[in-house]
Design goal:
The chain is mainly alpha-helical. The protein is built from 15 helices and no strands.
């Protein structure tokens, strides 16, 4: 009887310990990611002063060269995936080659300066993962653009009709009317920043809660069994990234907290999410020709899986 009483006392104690671990981990993730989301929102304010057609003028030369320039531009354009998809699709409607537009959609959320900063903080103790993420992200963007260029060699893919632009989208992706005064641009920028901060924090809170639940509630032996097996962990983390649909500006903190998972599986999470997740799949079908959206759903996971296998074999 005493043994049963001891087990009865132990179970609530274990529950309280799990709850405390969940709360600590959840709050820690929110505290770490919020500054980067705030900076990303500030970029939405600044972007209100940048004419979107400036991008189209930048990529007006040779298509292959433009694909590499678009991939490199990811390192300097401080926008998240929800912003760049409608902007790049709008530019494609106005004459930007579709392969170049798709390269921008992959490169910008994968390589932006905010993503570089947040990943550097999240993986400060594992700098090799930082280097691999951005080298692989650049290659992923270029490879996606070149595949689209090959598939569009007869021009039929680009000739497919674009769907009508949805009324609801990321605030900073909404095209501003011309002739706004400085004060009107400031107001529009502040509205964009506030809207983007609220929208991105919803995803961050949800992703942090799920990651904290896995950390505190899933038995450690199960996590180790999945995380230590690259054959299982890479697809598992890709699926996790796809479903979470967290903002790329602070996504690195999620895999960084997944102790026991391989570098390849963490890389697969960070490569796939900015280029393709649940919300992005919906956006691709909303902004791009249907065939282009289908190609992205096939090509990007295949390239991410290939990159993860290479990393798994070489690290």
């Amino acid at each position: 009887m005493w043994a049963g009483e001891e087990r009865g006392r132990a179970e609530p104690a274990d529950d309280l310990e799990q709850l405390s671990e969940f709360r600590l981990f959840f709050v820690g993730l929110i505290v770490e990611t919020t500054p980067f989301i705030a900076v990303a929102s500030l970029m939405a304010f600044i972007f209100a002063f940048v004419p979107q057609d400036a991008f189209r003028r930048l990529f007006s030369g040779n298509k292959i060269v433009s694909i590499f320039i678009a991939a490199a531009a990811g390192f300097v354009i401080p926008l998240c995936e929800c912003s760049i998809v409608p902007i790049a699709a709008r530019l494609a409607r106005r004459g930007l080659p579709l392969p170049v537009a798709v390269t921008l959609m992959v490169a910008v959320p994968s390589l932006s300066p905010i993503v570089v900063a947040s990943t550097s903080v999240a993986f400060s103790s594992a700098p090799h993962i930082i280097h691999i993420r951005f080298a692989a992200g650049f290659i992923l963007a270029v490879a996606t653009g070149l595949i689209f260029l090959f598939l569009d060699r007869d021009g039929k893919l680009s000739a497919q009709p674009f769907p009508d632009e949805p009324e609801r989208m990321c605030d900073c992706a909404v095209e501003k009317p011309g002739g706004l005064s400085f004060e009107e641009k400031v107001k529009a920028g502040l509205d964009d920043a506030a809207g983007d901060f609220t929208r991105m924090m919803v995803y961050i809170v949800a992703a942090s809660a799920i990651a904290a639940a896995i950390k505190s509630l899933v038995p450690a032996d199960i996590v180790s069994a999945v995380g230590g097996n690259s054959i299982v962990s890479v697809p598992a983390m890709m699926l996790f990234s796809f479903i979470l649909s967290t903002c790329s500006d602070a996504d690195a903190f999620i895999p960084a907290a997944m102790i026991g998972f391989s570098a390849a599986s963490k890389l697969s999470f960070m490569l796939l999410g900015p280029a393709l997740d649940l919300k992005l799949s919906i956006m691709h079908f909303s902004f791009l020709p249907r065939r282009a959206a289908v190609i992205l759903i096939i090509v990007i996971p295949a390239l991410v899986l290939a990159a993860s296998i290479v990393v798994s074999l070489t690290t």
